[in-house]
Write a structure and sequence with these properties.
5 strands; 12 helices; PIN-like_dom_sf; 57% helix; five-stranded parallel beta sheet; alpha/beta; PIN domain-containing protein; Rossmann fold; globular; 198 residues
Length: 198
């Protein structure tokens, strides 16, 4: 399986010290995780004041597959871009529709909302059920590895992330975290459920 990862999910996982857990959790090799070759520069800037997260990013990028921004189907890219989605997200989504069994992991709810506005047709059909959002990934990790392992890590990434800030931190237990994450996902599913991994 090929996993296409956007900047937002990489940044969030790095801040939570969970980036290295991504391939293990999804059952793929590092080389099966594809990222845009240009994205590392933006992420280095984003994580420059978080040395541990930055070190995690550098180690991750040394092992994953980098793809060229232009290496996609132009017609599909134009249709996806017409939704107003970010250029990098559009490229990853356009790549995802050409790969059987591919998974697009994203930490950007705006990208999911944009993709949900795709018109009926082959592009929309090809993306159905291929997107895994950050919050669903965290819920999966809690179920698999335990809150005692995932909760403290997510608490480290609370700054600048509204959902993590509400879900994790002092005095917040597993039930509270699961409720917050599940509520967010339910809201997302209301308008974009067709695109998300079941």
């Amino acid at each position: 399986m090929i996993v296409l990862s956007d900047n937002d999910i990489i940044s969030k996982l790095a801040r939570c010290d969970l980036l290295d857990a991504l391939p293990h959790h999804l059952g793929v090799a590092h080389a099966e995780i594809w990222v845009l070759s240009s994205s590392v520069y933006a992420l280095r800037k984003r994580l420059k004041n978080a040395p541990e997260a930055l070190a995690s990013l550098e180690a991750f990028y040394a092992r994953v597959t980098k793809i060229a921004d232009a290496d996609v189907d132009t017609a599909a890219l134009l249709e996806i871009s017409s939704t107003g989605i970010d250029a990098g997200e559009a490229i990853l989504a356009a790549k995802a529709i050409t790969l059987d069994g591919a998974l697009l992991v994203t930490g950007d709810k705006r990208a999911i909302k944009a993709l949900s506005a795709l018109p009926e047709g082959s592009v929309k059909t090809s993306l159905a059920g291929k997107v895994l959002c950050f919050e669903a990934l965290v819920l999966q990790m809690i179920a698999r590895y335990g809150f005692h392992e995932i909760g403290p890590r997510c608490a480290k990434g609370r700054d600048g992330d509204g959902v993590l800030s509400m879900a994790f931190g002092p005095g917040r237990d597993e039930a509270h975290a699961v409720e917050c994450l599940s509520s967010y996902i339910t809201t997302l599913q209301t308008n974009s459920g067709w695109i998300l991994v079941a």
